[in-house]
Specification:
- The structure is a single chain.
- This protein has helices at 91-100, 150-163, 188-207, 236-240, 245-255, 258-262, 269-272, 300-305, 321-334; strands at residues 3-10, 19-26, 36-39, 52-62, 71-79, 107-117, 167-172, 178-186, 212-214, 231-234, 287-289, 296-298, 310-312.
- The chain has 335 residues and is α+β, with helices and mostly antiparallel strands.
- A hairpin with an 8-residue loop joins strand 4 and strand 5.
- Helix 2 (150-163) packs across helix 3 and helix 3 runs antiparallel to helix 9 (321-334).
- The longest helix has 20 residues, at 188-207.
- It is globular and about 55 Å long.
- The structure holds adenosine-5'-diphosphate and manganese (II) ion (3 copies).
Length: 335
């Protein structure tokens, strides 16, 4: 029987791209989803008179929503005329960097935070007039009045597992309506592809609950935590050496390119990285053991054994994982 392939791609919306998708019916005997196309003039990816963009499948997995033989197909966007990567295609450059520095065997784990909103733009868990009780009981909470939206988390986590994505865990966050899931640990392309599909599944599942998933860095002004995408990373040397040297060298290298990283870690990063709410100021780089007020945190277990990984706490929830992992590869491995 014919089956459905949901083609997913990243669009050209600024300042933060959106995910788009459309369905292709594949004949029963088709085992490899073919190259396809779309109207780039409707996604901020092309002018109306040269509107065709090409979709090149790069990652395929079972579709946990439709089930059966149906699949999800993540694509890179290419220029229809030349077949070269479209300017909005950040995955191609990430693939190049990963290949160039493959011998360093860099791997990543990304903690995706997000905020559930009502269609009117107010966070779920906030009363329609005013504010809930201050932050405190919500992080990893249980019980009415402390957590909201758990149905969505349960459904999303199972969907990620059914799709074969490398989801590692979930937790309720510090601000009501805010949650996190983690993807990893894997090479830059795998973790970024899985994260992109996991984001798509989250938006798709939340549709059924009339809930909007926001990746905004600071969805609620005031004394409320922002939403980040802490990016944990390690090279082979960081994992294997036992003298902390590789980890310290990686932090120092990143500290020599502060603005390059911060400017590419997602829109509105200054509103989130204030030096409060478990962040370091966006323009003041620091790293330290167990320090959740540092730009980069080294877990205490890592200091104890002299090896492991480090956590760049600066990327926003709305970051592009292909850009963030590429920059970390280039800065840490490129010296
Ligand atoms: P926390 O909330 O304490 O910052 P989490 O448990 O949410 O930490 O996330 C830890 C992340 O660290 C996971 O995504 C995991 O994949 C990642 N991680 C663990 N070990 C490594 C490693 N050696 N290299 C890269 N990432 C790692
Ligand atoms: Mn976490
Ligand atoms: Mn978190
Ligand atoms: Mn973290």
């Amino acid at each position: 029987m014919a089956y459905q392939a949901e083609y997913i791609w990243v669009d050209g919306t600024e300042p933060t791209p959106l995910l788009r998708s459309k369905t292709k019916i594949l004949a029963d005997d088709v085992t490899t989803p073919p190259i396809w196309g779309f109207d780039g003039s409707s996604t901020n990816q092309a002018p109306g008179d040269k509107s065709d963009c090409a979709l090149h499948p790069v990652f395929t997995c079972p579709d946990p929503i439709r089930g059966g033989k149906n699949i999800l197909v993540l694509c890179e966007v290419m220029l229809a005329q030349t077949g070269a990567p479209h300017p909005t295609n950040t995955r191609a450059a990430c693939a190049d960097a990963a290949k160039k520095f493959a011998s360093d065997e860099m791997i990543f784990g990304i903690e995706q935070e997000y905020t559930m909103m009502r269609p009117d733009g107010s966070p779920l868990g906030f009363p329609s007039n005013g504010f809930p009780a201050p932050q405190g009981p919500y992080y990893c909470g249980v019980g009415t009045g402390r957590v909201v939206g758990r149905d969505i988390i349960e459904e999303h986590t199972q969907a990620c597992l059914d799709a074969g994505l490398l989801i590692e865990g979930t937790n309720a966050e510090v601000m009501p309506g805010q949650w996190e899931f983690q993807i990893g640990a894997a090479d830059a392309l795998t973790v970024s592809d899985h994260l992109t599909v996991a984001r798509w599944l989250l938006h798709r599942i939340a549709e059924d609950y009339d809930v909007v998933i926001s990746l905004a860095a600071k969805p609620q002004k005031g004394d409320w935590n922002g939403a980040g995408a802490h990016t944990n990373f390690s090279t082979k040397a960081m994992r294997n050496d036992t003298d902390m040297k590789a980890i310290t060298a990686a932090c120092e290298a990143i500290g020599s390119k502060v603005m390059l990283h911060v400017e590419n870690y997602g829109h509105d990063i200054q509103s989130r990285l204030t030096g409060h709410h478990e962040t370091a100021p966006w323009n003041k780089f620091s790293y330290g053991v167990s320090n959740r007020g540092a730009s980069i945190r080294i877990p205490w277990t890592v200091e104890k054994t002299g090896r492991g990984y480090a956590e760049d706490r600066r990327p926003n929830a709305n970051m592009d994982p292909y850009i963030v992992t590429r920059l970390l590869i280039e800065t840490v491995c490129g010296g």
